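Table 4 source record.
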Amino acid sequence: MANPASHTESLKPVIDPIVLIELTNLKASGQLVELAAHPQIGMKPEWILDLAQSEHPWVRLSLASNPAIANFPEAAAKLSGDKELAIRATLARNPSVASHPEIIEELSTDKHFEVREDLAQNPGVASYPDALVRLSKDRSKTVRRSLVKFLAKSPQAVRSIVNATNEDPDVRFWLSSERRISGALASCPDALALIAQDEDPRIRMAIARNDALASCPDTIKQLAGDSVPIVRCFIADTPTTGKYPEIVEKLSQDENSLVRQSLASNPAKSHRLPLS
């Protein structure tokens, strides 16, 4: 029998059946690991399923990280229920697994938060509102934080998360203060307006300093009339506010001197205002 390792170095999308039989029957795990990890693996589904049930964890781990796993839903489903945490977590990180919503659903309810955290960082999950909602309500704060940090980068994802977090101020705060997703927030004026009405003042404070407000004068005006002075201070100090004379004028007459001082220190205000 030829050296199996030499075959794995030059695997083609359609592999010689004789080579496959030799490789899948191997007891040594090294060559099987290489086979399972090959990005152009072209095998019958039942052979891939054999790899997904291999006695060697490293073989299953390699298969879980293989982008080609998307072509083998039965094997992917087997890996999503694997007894090893590391294998399920690796599958959760694999962007190609997003082509199978039933597997996304199973991983999003995994008993270990590490798996759900990795899934919350998988860009493919952003296309599944149900999964976004489930993860945004996850019992683990780490999972919820990862979701905002990595997936709230599209208007669809932002809306799903905002609409699902009525009972979780932490997620709304992270969403409001995460500057890397300000572009997605700016594309959702309805979500911005909802956040600006939040009953938690720290969330309104955070959104008042978010660059996403640049194209939403109605929300800026709303925050300029906020009942909490520190929120009005933050909006008065935001450069974007200076582009709207009507809002500047309103803040210049605020009853709170700290708000007026914040506005006076704003370099973008349209004209110089007294501090009285």
